[in-house]
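User: Hi! I'm working on a homework problem where we have to compare a predicted structure to a textbook description. Could you give me the structure for the chain below?
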Amino acid sequence: MNFLKNWKGILITAVLFIVNLWVIQFTDFDLYVQDRVYNFQTGTWPLAAVHARYGWLLYSGIKAALALFALLLISLYALSFTEKFAGLKQYRRVFICIVLSLALCPLIASEAKKVTNIYCPYQIERYGGDNPYVKPFSQYPADFVQRKKARGFPAGHAAGGFALLSLFFAFKERRHRIIFGSLGLAVGIFMGTYQI
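Assistant: Happy to help. Predicted structure tokens:
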């Protein structure tokens, strides 16, 4: 029944997903953004030096923090069955919703990579790589010999961050939805931008 109550949010999410796929497939918006980020003169991405120095925090650290957050929610869910923490019972659905999102979003992105066969920007010729650029639903040039299947799209790292958008659906009050949904969006955008 809660599913039917949230149909508008689910419908909006589905429409935005389809619009996003359409933009990626039928426009060069991704190249437009990447061209403004990539330094063609030096052949480098702006965060390459940052990643070399702080990748442990900004890449591995954030993934570890998301995993710890999921473990915390699982622990709270388990504690909600004890008499001492009975007050947590009302949040069981929230805990499960967020944990499922944190698990399923990166998993779905990982599985989708097997189908899309798209290289990361740094791997394509335009940005110093060895592989041609193609859209997600397009074919590689006939003369291209693919030595290793690509796994660059969708971005799994960003999917972990965007999984926190589930925080929007976890709360009933509009104010909390906006605050926590915005937090999830910000984390997803940060994690996606960091990977550029």
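For your comparison, note the following. Residues 42 and 128 are 10 Å apart (CA to CA). The first helix runs from residue 2 to 5. Good luck with the assignment!
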